[in-house]
Design goal:
This protein has 213 residues and is mainly alpha-helical. 74% of the residues lie in helices and 0% in strands. The termini are close together.
């Protein structure tokens, strides 16, 4: 159960029956490797169940070692820029390269300071996106943070251009809704993806918010 929740007697009985159905291996993993995920009262119930099974300390240590090895193998198998993570990297690269190229071409065609000032925010977003893409590819632990920042900054800049265009009677950028939806989708993906956690392993940066009973 989640930390901080109150348990009445009936809930304790439900948990006790649940833990009785767990395998010894799962119980050992819960009270050792995954202990931070459980409420102390739930941990106490699991320990009592283990004690009732007369599992020796040597057996517990052996099971714990086996669980650690399995966890490491699972992490290795999930690690790597593949699947949706690969798609995200390609999308960041494509969008950022497009922004940088478009801004530079616009400035070359109309090399005035005011043009550069107007387009500077877009250029900054593009350059930062290329940087975020580079740290993603190099599997730097800071990559998820930079990618998150880029996903937040991009729609904000689009909103600013929309507001300025509306107030000045100029051209209003299109696709604001698509930009916001794009950011929301990937901002949801990044902190919840097991592959992202395994590839850019840093448990403090991506805490697991899903607590089990």
């Amino acid at each position: 159960m989640r930390r901080g929740q109150q348990m009445d007697r009936s809930e304790l009985e439900v948990l006790r029956e649940r833990y009785q159905a767990w395998s010894t291996e799962d119980l050992v993993q819960a009270v050792t490797i995954d202990i931070a995920q459980y409420d102390p009262r739930a941990v106490e119930l699991m320990k009592r169940e283990l004690d009732g099974r007369n599992v020796s300390q040597a057996e517990r240590e052996a099971l714990q070692s086996s669980n650690v090895e399995k966890r490491e193998e699972q992490t290795k198998s999930m690690s790597g820029i593949k699947g949706l993570l690969l798609l995200f990297v390609l999308v960041v690269l494509g969008n950022s390269a497009y922004l940088v190229t478009t801004v530079l071409l616009s400035f070359v065609q109309n090399a005035h300071l005011i043009v550069f000032i107007v387009l500077a925010p877009l250029l900054a977003v593009g350059v930062y996106g290329l940087f975020a893409c580079s740290v993603l590819i190099r599997r730097n632990p800071s990559a998820p943070r930079h990618a998150t920042n880029w996903l937040i900054i991009m729609p904000i800049v689009n909103v600013l251009y929309t507001v300025v265009g509306y107030l000045t009677g100029g051209e209003v950028p299109r696709g604001l809704g698509h930009s916001a939806a794009f950011s929301v989708i990937w901002l949801t993906y990044l902190p919840n993806s097991k592959r992202v956690k395994a590839t850019y392993s840093n448990p403090e940066r991506w805490p697991d918010m899903r607590r089990r009973k």
